[in-house]
Amino acid sequence: MTDLRVRIAPSPTGTIHLGLCRTALFNWAYAQKRGGTFVLRIEDTDRTRSTAESEEAILEGLRWLGIDWDEGPDVGGPYAPYRQSERVERHRRRAEELLASGHAYRCFCTPEYLEELRKAQEARKETPRYDGTYRDLDPAESERRAAAGEEFVVRFRVPEGATTFTDLVRGEVTFEHAEIDDWIMLRRDGSPTYNFVVVCDDVDMRISHVFRGEEHLVNTPKQILLYEAFGEQPPLFGHLPLMLGTDRKKLSKRTGDTSLGDYVANGYPRDAVVNFLCLQGWALDGETDVFDLDTFVEHFDIVDVQKAGAVFDPDKFRWLAGDTIRRMSVPDLADAVAPFVVRDGLMTADEIADRREWFERLVAGEQERIELFSEFPDRVRTFFEDDEGIAYEERAEKNARKHEDRVRTLEDFEAWLGDPSRPAEPEALGAEMKDWVKERGVKFPAVFQPLRCAVTGMAGGRDLADSILLLGVDRARVRIRAALSRLA
RNA sequence: GGCCCUAUCGUCUAGUCAGGCCUAGGACACCAGGUUUUCAUCCUGGCGACGGGGGUUCAAAUCCCCCUAGGGUCACCA
Description:
The protein is mainly alpha-helical. About 45% of the residues lie in helices and about 10% in strands. It is built from 21 helices and 11 strands. It has helices at about 20-35, 50-65, 90-100, 110-125, 140-145, 195-205, 220-230, 260-265, 270-280, 295-300, 315-325, 330-345, 350-355, 355-365, 375-380, 395-400, 405-415, 425-440, 445-455, 465-470, 475-485; strands at about 5-10, 35-40, 105, 155, 160-165, 170-175, 185, 210-215, 235-240, 245, 310. The strands form 5 sheets. It has a 3-stranded antiparallel β-sheet. Strand 1, helix 1 (about 20-35) and strand 2 (about 35-40) form a beta-alpha-beta unit. The longest helix has 17 residues, at about 20-35. The radius of gyration is 32 Å and the shape is elongated. It binds one RNA strand through helix 4, strand 6, helix 6, strand 11 and helix 11.
């Protein structure tokens, strides 16, 4: 049991949550750095809520993040199966073992009775808890009633005393056993509950370190007691601070997107997602906010994790996304942005491939203007519009109309641009355009504002010479001619 | 409410374990300038925090106690 083995055990009951992503990242990085094994186990004991699609979404999401696992439902491993629903026989045997050793006992209370008990306690403002009716039932009697077909659940017999453990992020934590109920291990239908399976499987899979969200902190003493009942050495625990929404409560859909898929669909770069998640409860050196997955792995240690919850800051996330985009190579950015262009119907994948050089120029001009891949299509939409009637942004048109001479300026410029000797390089053309403006003896905006409106319809945006060349001189001239009357 | 956890700028955090190097550093956001044909980028500057009270000590953001505040958890969910 000296091998370092960590795991994540997601339940496949929906989309892949950002909290799971961070937990996975921290576990994975810990194993990576120390040459340990990272196990993926699917916690599908709740058969009614678990779905195959959800499981697939989780695997896909983790892969997208760049996380791979050494053992898991899809790749197998020495402790297979890695889906809890396929391990129920093992769980049942474990429960019987505890029943035999007296660490567990049958409880014949009906759900209705327990329900009433709880309500009564709540009415009296007491902490709801099991009353221990069957805790000391004679084993022979218990056996007889079970054999007679009476329904029961199996409860863990919590001993007297207290449990203290050293949490790798929080330090020493103590729970009085008096505060812990004789919790249910096996339901009436014989299916095992979370606290029970998780320990069975972690024992069987020789898990050495358990890093999970703080919401599990209170489960830990129950689980440690179980390890002890099994005569097993408990793993080391580390409870990660919760990721909080802007309402300072556990991150939920209430205050924003919580599932990884939403961020992927919205065009957050992978590196930015990983980077941001790493920053939730951990910092590289306090100075450096931007780093890659390798750097994270190299420097991560569970003991450096922050104890306090981390409020999710969408602004910083976005900034990180934009920063990541700015650092990408143009070809990579073009690849990343292409699916969004296709999705919005601007170009087909084939067209992008055919006009790759042009497309990369289109992309290069937006690199420092977008924060998300998904913002790209809207920003270049003008290049795909009908030249006679492109959309004018309100502000663009207003800027253009500020200049009395706009129509004559555009007329003259259109003619000038029609000269076949104009350069085909943006920089050279831009320089000549500036010279042209200077020769006219007017200020830059007097020319560029009407021209920008005429050519792109936008108030801001990339270099104008670049826009003209991207469009092609002929199309640009058509747009300028159309503007002659539109801006009159 | 019981139990448990937590507490540095609005937010993410460095510094806390080994008290002095902290008139508390970085980043996002915000504000003001600069660069730029526009927008964006980029650069410069500014704003801005040790929750409160007691101790211990020559010295406390750092150690101790109390209070307060926030969060988590109290299922035959995970």
